Structure formats: structure tokens, C-alpha cells
Amino acid sequence: MAKDTIGIDVSKDRLDTFWHSRAEACCLPNSPEGFGQLCDWLGKQEDVLIVFEATGAYHRGLERHLSLTGKPFIKVNPKQARRFAQAIGRLAKTDSVDARMLARMGVVLDLTPQAVEGEDVHDLRELLTARRALVKDQVTAKTRLATALNPLVREQLARRIEDIGADIQALDEVIAQIARQRGTLEERIRRLMTIPGIGRLTATTMLIDMPELGYLESKKITALAGLAPMTQQSGKWQGKERITGGRASIRRAIYMPALVAIRFNRDLHDKYQQLLKAGKAKKVAITAIMRRIIILANTLLRERRDWLPERP
């Protein structure tokens, strides 16, 4: 079991922390000053695992600081943390209670630190997040333009769409530049780009949103992506298998590459046609191809080889 843990409940303005072995709690600001105070509190302790939940934008500063200072930490899924709390009978939910629960979760489940990411990975993640926001704005503006009648509104929307396109292009250029110049990911990106349908942006997105790619077995990586069919069965009742959970950003990233692969990858095209002939819906068949692509990407990275039309 883990020797010691610190649970941190992250909110917009503060970090509620609890040191498991010392049974000490403190509240720190969610800012660079607070991160420094946390490191001062830890002192020279190197075997203390810091456990916190993923909280969208609010945990990123803490995660970046811990990565750059080399402190061991693990970012857990909020749903899993809540289910752990329910399993141990902790129904109350406050910031201080959650901090205690996270510290205990790290000990009971014997959680291990996640891999430390370089500064370029954090920069790329922030740029990709900004790009996704711009794409959403672009779709919204195009939808409004399709129904707008007033000339002034149409002019403003057209100008807005053009500006967003320029901003997206600028982000794409910076993302590619960082990956090439500072990149600890460049070789892995190049290897993924050998797969038909996967370009530089898709490859970068896959590696940033799923850093575990290439390090896990196939069943685990498909479950992590939310592409593993989950069986529904009880007694004599047999329900339909369906995908659930996982990382939606990965599924969005490989959806278009899956459509390209169906057209230009002979093996995947044949598999797609086989599923359709077996009576599977097109969405189910496409999901199966997406699953094969994520398994293929994981295998190539694990075996450190490029994709070839015919496996040697």
C-alpha cells in the first residue's frame, strides 16, 4: 500500500488539503503562491502521493506545478472518486470531506503516481483546449449565419467566422511548431501519422488527451477511450452490448480518420463491409473501426514501428 498520501479538493479559489498520516488539514489558495505553500508544507518528503480530482480548468495550474517540480501525484476521475466515497459509506460531500476521502482513496486503492509530463505537453494541452473552444464558436456562428436575414448581422457573422478561421490556423501553426522544436512527442506523432487518415493535429490530440497510448494493453486502452463494448447480462436476460464512459475527445479525434480508413485501408474496409452484411448498424460498424484504429495506434507505439500496408 502507499506509504502516505495528501488529498486535495480543487475549487476555483482554493485547495482544501488533507495529509493522511498526520491527519492534518489546511486550506491554500489555488494560485502559484498556494502551490509554493503546498511544496513548503511537504518539505523534503518525497514519498507522499498527492491525489486530486480532474476539475476542468481549475486543476491545471496545480498539475503543471507538480509536474515541473517533480512531486508524485495522481489525477483521478471524479466519478470513480464519488463511487469510492459511497462504497466506504461517506455520503456527505464538502470540500474538506472530499480531501479526506481522496487521501484515503490513495492509500486503500494503492494508487501509483502518473507519469510526469514535460512543459511542452502542458502548452500543447492548453492550445488544443483553446482550439476546441474556437471550433465551437465557429460552428455556432455558421449556424446563425445560415438563418440570419439582417444585412448587418450577416456581415458581422461573416467577419467573425473569418477571424475565428484565422485564429484556428494560428493555433495549428503554433501547435506544430512546439511539437517539432520542443517536442518529446515528435517521434510518436510521426509514427501515428503513418496510419492512413491520421494527420498531425489528430496525432497530437491523441497523444495529449491519452498519454497512456502505447503503454497499456489493448483492452485497457479501448476502455479508456470509451470504445470497449460493455456486456449487459443478468441470469437468463442478455442485453445489448454498448460503449459507455471513456474520453469523448479521443472518439471525436478519430471519427473522421475512421471514415477515411474505411475508404482507403483494405483490411478495415473489408471489416466494415463484413459488419454491415452481418446486420450491424452503420454507427456500430464505424465504432468498431474506431476501436481497431485506437488498438492499431497503441500497438505501433508500443512496438515502436510504423504502419505498413502489409505487416512484415
From TrEMBL:
Residues 190-273 form the Transposase IS116/IS110/IS902 C-terminal domain. InterPro entries: Transp_IS110-like_N (IPR002525), Transpos_IS110 (IPR047650), Transposase_20 (IPR003346). NCBIfam families: transpos_IS110 (NF033542). One of its GO terms (biological process) is DNA transposition. This is IS110 family transposase. The keyword Ligase does not apply. Keywords: Coiled coil. Residues 154-188 form a coiled coil. The keyword Coiled coil applies. Residues 6-150 form the Transposase IS110-like N-terminal domain. GO terms for molecular function: DNA binding; transposase activity. It comes from Paracoccus aestuariivivens.
